Structure formats: structure tokens, C-alpha cells
Fold this protein.
Amino acid sequence: MGDIILKLQNLEAGYIIKQGDIKAVDNVNFELKRGEFLGIAGESGCGKSTLAYTIMGLLEDNGRIFNGEILYQDKDLTSMTENELKAIRWQNISMVFQSAMNALNPVMKIGNQLIDTILSHKKDFTKRDAINKSKEMLKLVDITEDRMNAFPHQLSGGMKQRVMIAMAMILEPDIIIMDEPTTALDVVVQRTIIDKISDLRKQFNFSVIFITHDLSLLVEISDKLIIMYSGQIIESGLANKVYNNPLHPYTKGLMNSFPSLTGKLQDFGGIPGKPPNFLKLPGGCRFHTRCPMKQDICSKVAPPLQQINNDHTARCHFVKKGN
């Protein structure tokens, strides 16, 4: 892994609705290196997808960036015009959307969708060049070229997701954001997709931001992990450190929410309660209403994101340096 290619500084983003402003991304900071695999995990509604759409400049009409910077190779994406962002999207930063069923045009053949992606960005490409490039990318994701003439409904869920990965890679971007790309796929197909993403990243040295609610998917393939809760980063660090020594009670709860495939049988369970309403956030620590370790200070004082040791941070009053 090499130089820093993406840097978020004090990023705050969300939505403006009649009831008030929703800050779904709240003071988020992180760096992404070239060739790095960054996993972001958390429950539904924690701000993961909003973060992805903010980076891509694809927020809904009522979406806003309230504060902060998104630096791609030292260029601030938040200050760019729509035309400037269009030149970067797919060419430099691309995205695999959450549902391939919705992301692919149901009335266009797979090949035409890939070809259109190329020709809209590569003005020096002929249609023949685009066809050959599309066939090459499908082959990389283990799809035969005859599927160029297939419509999305003629492909399985796993194949549609691999087409989306091919589409995201087709312009050879520096960064690919993957927003829950294995949702609704069975575990065998999930593993196939994960392995394919990992192999392609090593082959082409692009960076990956992989977003999921399933922490178990990330622990083997990520270089770094970020755990989000209620719009904030509540723990981050090297993947093996976060997995082997989770510091925040929320991260520990996520870890206990999936069973081990080996060892003795043991009880496991979810995290009681539900994430807070962004319009009515609790005082102090946002997790305190669900936390088994809560004390009086938790409802009164919001804990900062602390550097606990090298490459490991946590947002908790009871986690100390050196843990």
C-alpha cells in the first residue's frame, strides 16, 4: 500500500427535512491509501450509505454537505461543480450500488450498459474498442462474453453483482466504493464475490471502501476497519486489532451477533434496543441507552474519539490508552 489517495476531514453531511436537519455523517475523519481495503460496518441507519453517496457527490436533492472536506489527491470534492464531479465519477472513483437489480437498466442488454459507460467517459474510444474492453472486463469477473447480449433478468443474483463490479472497474478507477454488494445473496455466492473483489484489488492495485452491516464479512479481507454508530465513527483501526481486541461495547456487540464456525457451542445474541432517532439524539454518548457498561457520565458527557494505541481509536469513556 502506498500514498494517501483519499482523505476525509471533519465531514458532516445529511438531509434537510421539514422536521429539521439530519446529520447522518457527523464529524467523520479517515484516510485511504492506494491499494488499501477499508471496511466500514454498522447497523442499518448508522450513516454508512450516506457517507458513500457523499463521497460520490450523489446525495438526494435534499442532501447537503454541512461541513468538512473530501480530498481526492489533494483536490476537495466538496467544492467542485457538478461537471467537475462528473469527470471524476467512474473515471477515478466508482461505486457498486447496494442492489444490482435496481442499478442495472432492466430493458438494456448487459453489453450496451458497459459500452455506454466507456463511451460516455472515453472520447478517444471507438465502439469496437468499447466492445472489446467490455468483453475483457466480463472475463475478469468470470462471465462469458456471450452474456453481453443478455438482459439483467436472464442473470442470477451473483452474476448481476459481478456485472456491477465489472462496470465499476471498467474505467480502471483509483477507488471503488462498494455499498453492501452482497446483500440478498446466499453465503456461498457472497464468499465468491468477496474473493473475486480481493483478487481483483491485488491484481489492479485499486483501493476499496467496502460498506456492510455484516462485520463477519470484513474481518478476513480488510486492512482497516471503521465501525459507525449514529453517524459517528465509534471505533477504527487495523482489522486484526479491531477483531482480536474490540474496545467499544458496540463493536463487541456486533462481534457477538454472529456465531463461530469452530470451537464449542456458545450463546450469542444481538444488541438490545435500536439506534436513536437522528432528530432526537440522546445526550452524552449516543450508545448509552443500549450499552451494558453505561454509568452516569455516559448520559451527560459525549466521549471523544480517542487514540488508544497505534492505529486503534475508540469513542468510549471507559477505554484507556494502552488497552
